[in-house]
Amino acid sequence: MCYSIPGKVTGLNGRVASIDYYGEEREAIVDIPSVKEGDFVFAQGGLVIKKISKDEAERILRVWRRKFFELKKRDLKLSREDEIGDIGWERILKKAGEGSGISKKEMLFLMGLEGEEKLNALYKTANAVRRKKLKNSCCVHGIIEFSSYCGKDCLYCGINARNDRLQRYRMDEKEIVETADYAVNELGFKALVLQSGEDAFYTTKKIIKVITEIKKQCDVLLFLS
Length: 225
Fold this sequence. Notes:
Layout: E1 7-13, E2 16-21, E3 24-30, E4 40-44, E5 47-52, H1 54-79, H2 88-98, H3 104-111, H4 116-134, E6 142-147, H5 173-185, E7 191-196, H6 204-217, E8 221-224
Parallel strand pairs: 3-5, 6-7, 7-8
Antiparallel strand pairs: 1-2, 1-4, 2-3, 4-5
Helix pairs in contact: 1-4, 2-4, 5-6
């Protein structure tokens, strides 16, 4: 996982780049040509998706330098674990926070906690575990919902085939590509999800064509859903 700010490539091992973010190193697979040590790049979801000039990168990094460390300090404060005693719910919470594993019964017990003190302790423990396992990585994805047609009947889903109250729509290939181009080149998204119901209208050939056209026009990480 990588930040949505540029980083500097400090080393290459085959297709894997080491990238420096204010002294913090991450790794990402190089998905574009001609990346070399010393380049400034954007990486998303573990993939290098775009190179940018040194001047542009340094301008962005100057703006974010103080905020980056302020956010890290704030996150550390919010996720710092308080001392937990031996009361039943606290004991279970401590086990969860230490990664010792909890039973299904204990998990359900924690999900049913009520009251400000207990809920704050639960949220703080969850945040501490998140920080321990994932650090501060977070991906912001733009989602292009290109069709609301679906042949499946999943009861939980609002676009299931039986929902006859829904006004269905489909975007054509050109619309999808133009929307992606706007999202990336105008709004600045670095990752997009192309999402729809299971719509047989979009053949594999059509989807490949859409992806190919988007990649020609946009430096972006794409997901299909």
